[in-house]
Structures are given as C-alpha cells and as structure tokens.
Amino acid sequence: MSERMKFSIMMFLEFFIWGAWLPLAVPFLLAMDFKEWWQIALFMNAFAIASITAMFFSNQFADRNFAAEKFLAVSHLIGGVAILGIGFVHNYWGHFGAPTHEFWPFFALMLIHSLFYVPTISITNSIAFSNLKDAQNEFPLVRLWGTIGWIAASLPFVFILVDWSKIPALGGDVGFVDWLGATFHHENSKKGPAFIDGVSYTYVAAGVASLLLAAFSLTLPHTPPKPARADESPFAWLEAMKLLNQPFMLVLFLATFIDATVHMGYFMLTGDFLIQKVGIPAQWVMPVMSIGQVAEIGTMALLGFVLKRFGWRTTMILGILGHTARFGVFAFFPEMAPAIVINVLHGICYAFFFATVYIFVDEFFPKDARASAQGLFNFLIIGIGPLLGGFLWPYCQGLLTTETDGKKVVDYQTLFLIPSGTALVAALLLLLFFHPPVSGGKLDDGSIRRTEG
C-alpha cells in the first residue's frame, strides 16, 4: 500500500469519527431529556474546550516529545474507548440497574474523547505534510478523503433510524419503489426510546472508527518528534496579538470571532430544527447536513478563481453572507425543499471565509510570523468562537421555547434571525473597515505598503 493511500485512509477515519456523532448530537440530548440549555452547551462545548487546550498541548508538547504516529495511536485508543462509552452508557448500563439518563457521565465521556481527539486533527496534518513527497499538490487530494469520510458516516443511519416494523415486506403487492418510499417516509422514522437507541449507535460507530485508526496508525511512516527551536516561544500565538495593531487585522480578528460563533450555531440548532419544524425524517438529517461537505469539495476547487476574480474582501464577505442567507431561509421558509437545498451554503461559508482566512495569513505574513498568526486565528475558529456559540445558541433557544399543552414549542423564526443578523454585522464590518494590502504586500516590519482599492 502506498504512503499516499495510507494517509487517505487516515483522513477518512479521522473525519468519519467527527461526522458520525456531531449532526445528531443535539436531537439525541433533547430526546434523552437533557433539555436544560446549559446541559446542551456543556456537552457540545467539550469539543471547543479541547480545541483551546490542544493549542498548548499538541502544538507545544505532544509534537515535541512523541513520534506523531504513536501519539495518534494512543490518542485514538483512549478517545475511542471514551466515545464508545457514550453508546455503552445508554445501551447497557440500564441492564445493571444504573441510571441511563444522568447527564454527567455523558459529559465526562465526551470531554475525555474531545481532549484526546482534537489534537489528532493537527497531528494527522503533520504526518501527511512530513511524509508526502509533493505536499503542496498531494495534500489537497489526501485531505479530500477526510470530507468523504464525514459524508460516509451518515449513510448507515439512513437505514438504522428507520422503524422497520412499519415497513411492508418487499415483494408481492409491494414493489421496490413503494418499499423505498415507505422506508424514507418521515412517519416511519424511529421515535422515542427507539430513536435514542438508534442515535446512540452514532457514538458506537465513532468509537469503532477511532479504535480502527488507533491500530492503523501503527502502520504509518515513522514521524519523529520535532525539536523546539531555541528562539521559539511556547506562547507564540499569544505574541501574535501584537499583529492586531494593524487596523485591518483587528477588523479581520473581530469578523472571524463573530463568524466562528455564528458557524457553531449551525451544529447547535439545525438538527433539531430539521426534525421538529421541517419534518425531515430523523434518518435523513445526517445526509442533509452533509450536503455542505459535498458543496465544500466543489467550492474549494473554485476558491482560487474566486479570489483572483473578486479579491480577499469580497470573497470573505460572500462566505459570511452565506450564514445570513442560510439562517434567513430557515427563519422564513421552514419547508422541506428550501431547508434542504440551502445547506449547500455550509460548504461555501467554510471555503470562502475560513479557508480564505488561512490563505490570507499565509500570503501576508513573513515566514517567521505565519505560524503564530495561524495559531491566533485557530484560537478563534476552533476555540473561543465555538465556545461562545456553544453557550449562546442553546441559551437563545431556551429563551424562545414555550410550553403549550405539555409540548415545548420553539420560535424558530426569531431564533434563526439572531445568527442571521449577527453574520450580517460581521459582513458589514469587513465591507466598511477591512482594507488589507494588495496581493504581494508583506507585513515585514509591521507596516502596510499598499492597500486594496
């Protein structure tokens, strides 16, 4: 097996793990009767907390002291057992008389999983970049398999979450088309305890994939620890805060923080909305939300052209406005077709803004400052932004939830207008105040040579 194929399998499993549990996490928690907003926030924020700690651990300790492939194996072994335990807690603890609806065991297991999983995202990148012969050209194709893995994680649950007791047997008077239609009908989705049982297997799938990757990691090429440079600070990304003395960088910093917070709202709010308001069958929520990953593939292919044609500011604004449009459609058109199709904007939001930010930093900062600047924006994109969003959006949903005839009803229109309007503020911030140097203008000495427009 070629090294490139090994790295592709590594990426497939790496993002299969994440894509398996995330889309249905909030509906699962709500079905488990964890309806307090802080419970949803804490569970979902385990990942954001781990993202912040990973900036110190994986970048400043793990890759300085451990061979990358061995660190990957141990991390996925521990993280895999932890997330497998979430499915185990629900499915098996009850047989021993233990409570299955206690919140803290679920949170503790998710926190352990996240603390060990999140560092592996950068470690897998490091392994690939260190061993590919032509990383610039080969890495995008290797990383593509991560997106494919995310999408593939949703496919088994199209069938696992079907209530097969309601599906007529194929054959006789029931043709294949009628049988398939019954299989995908929303009334034939699992509900109640059966739904909880079905979704719990998303954690089992993630755990099995993690354990497979733990074993597979031992077949990867040896990637030795990277010795720290004598002049390297363990808090280099914090030192990059001085970059914010440039007005355009401060504007980009604020816009990125806002957009990362809004981005988290997609994962916090969409799954339950699609099931409860739109009426999409539970088994189709994961594939519907994976439309964004499919779109991401095509959008990334077009990103270079869009940047050349429209420039940094316009491309970033388009990425942020994707959030405004998507949440606006959720607010005003909560019907099946628009609620499904608009998910295509998720990929556009990621590529046109977040990917563009990473490219922008690489373009405009000298080589010795790039890592620090990337770390600074990583702190926003996968750390503090999602952390705030993880608390903000469940809190907003709680405020906009009322109980009628014993049933809780969410004012989804008002709820989605909040992130939609928040994203619009970030777009206006870039439009009015973001004036970066033209392509090729480096910040060699902290000064701006030329500006756009």
CATH topology of the largest domain: Growth Hormone, Chain: A
Q: How large is the radius of gyration?
A: 22 Å
Major sheet summary line: 2 strands, antiparallel
Strand content: under 5%
- Return the string of H and E elements: HHHHHHHHHHHHHHHEEH
Helix content: over 70%
- CATH architecture label name of the largest domain: Up-down Bundle
Structural summary, described in words:
This protein is an all-alpha fold. The protein folds into 2 domains: 1-223, Growth Hormone, Chain: A; 235-453, Growth Hormone, Chain: A (Up-down Bundle), CATH 1.20.1250. Helix content is 74%, strand content 2%. The protein contains 16 helices and 2 strands. It has helices at 3-21, 25-31, 37-65, 68-92, 103-131, 135-154, 157-160, 176-183, 193-217, 236-239, 247-278, 282-332, 336-341, 345-364, 367-399, 412-433; strands at residues 401-404, 407-410. Strands 1-2 form a two-stranded antiparallel ribbon. A hairpin with a 2-residue loop joins β1 (401-404) and β2. The chain is globular, with a radius of gyration of 22 Å. The termini are far apart. Residues 443-453 have low confidence and may be disordered.
